[in-house]
Design a protein that fits this description.
Elements (H helix, E strand, L loop, with lengths): L5 E6 L19 E2 L2 E2 H11 L4 E7 L4 H5 L4 H9 L7 H9 L1 E7 L9 H5 L1 H4 L4 E5 L2 E4 L5 H13 L3 E7 L9 E5 L9 E6 L10 E9 L2 H7 L11 H9 L4 E5 L5 E4 L3 H12 L3 H14 L1
Helix pairs in contact: 8-9
């Protein structure tokens, strides 16, 4: 049995699609309703049994660390004004997980593979969960889908399990698309994850989501990997390297779990609406607003 207790969250990007607001704070702190995007990721990890979480940030960026750190002055004010419930969600995080903050060295190339290299000492020889900081899993119970991915990793012992979603032909050009291979022993095995191809060239409509369960082989693979498309260090290239010699599987989002990217204003807005519709205190008012205004 493989016990996975570590997760790495990538939060070192510039978030240029959210300028000018992210000039003053990282895009991962842009809120989804009353909590920043990244808090949902931390809660998702905790829901799946992860107890050690590393957040990889830009050098010099301390806002995320400050957010997840206790603030005695604020807590004193909330106690005095009988408003302590506003910090309950953060107190639960502090009681259930240890969060480590790792600055991504400036000499590393830009790209979604570099945070794994930055976190190599944290990862050590262990398998780990990897998350893109501007992606969201929308589900009634946080960690449900991630737990399913971890169970698949434990059952088949591959070098990776990658979250995918059937995004359709119109959207697949925005994502890496899964290229499947028939294997009776390993369901949903892939031979490659091909980045941002035109719809008529994509091998499937299953787009790569922002959730991965990976063996520590990915650290060494990325350390020896050259930059690719756009001179970036792509995790998908490491996936393709390992898929040639070992087993890499996908897990498709379905049922009540959904994956949404929040990396641009339109998709961020859609994510806010999706999360609000799961909240019984907001759902009816929101539906009535749409009924009257759309």
């Amino acid at each position: 049995m493989t016990i996975i207790k570590k997760a790495v969250i990538a939060a070192a990007g510039r978030g240029t699609r959210f300028l000018p607001v992210v000039k003053s704070y990282p895009k991962e702190l842009v809120p989804i309703l009353a909590k920043p995007n990244i808090q949902y990721l931390v809660e998702e990890n905790i829901g799946a049994g992860i107890t050690e979480i590393a957040i990889v940030t830009r050098v010099g960026e301390t806002a995320i660390e400050r957010y997840f750190s206790p603030d005695p002055e604020l807590e004193k004010y909330l106690i005095e004004n009988n408003k302590t419930a506003y910090l309950d969600s953060l107190k639960e995080i502090w009681s259930k997980a240890k969060i480590t903050f790792i600055p991504q060295p400036v000499e590393l190339p830009y790209g979604n593979g570099s945070p794994i290299i930055a976190a190599k000492d944290f990862i050590g020889s262990d398998p780990f969960v990897y998350m893109f900081g501007d992606d969201l899993t929308v589900e009634p119970k946080p960690g449900t889908f991630l737990s399913k991915m971890i169970a698949t990793f434990d059952k088949y012992q591959p070098d990776g399990v990658i979250a995918v979603k059937d995004v359709g032909r119109e959207e697949i050009c925005r994502y890496g698309s899964a290229q499947y291979v028939e294997d009776p022993k390993y369901p949903h095995r892939i031979s490659a994850m091909l980045e941002k191809l035109p719809a008529d060239q994509a091998p499937s409509t299953f787009g790569q989501g922002g959730r991965f369960v990976l063996s520590n082989k990915y650290v060494e693979t990325l350390l020896n990997q050259k930059t690719g498309l756009g001179n970036e260090l792509w995790l998908a290239d490491a996936v393709n390297t390992l898929a040639k010699t070992s087993v890499v599987l996908t897990e498709a989002l379905e049922d009540e779990s959904d994956w949404m990217t929040t990396g641009d204003p339109l998709r961020w807005l859609k994510a806010n609406i999706a999360v609000a519709l799961l909240d019984p205190s907001l759902k009816d008012d929101l539906k009535e607003f749409f009924k009257q205004n759309i």
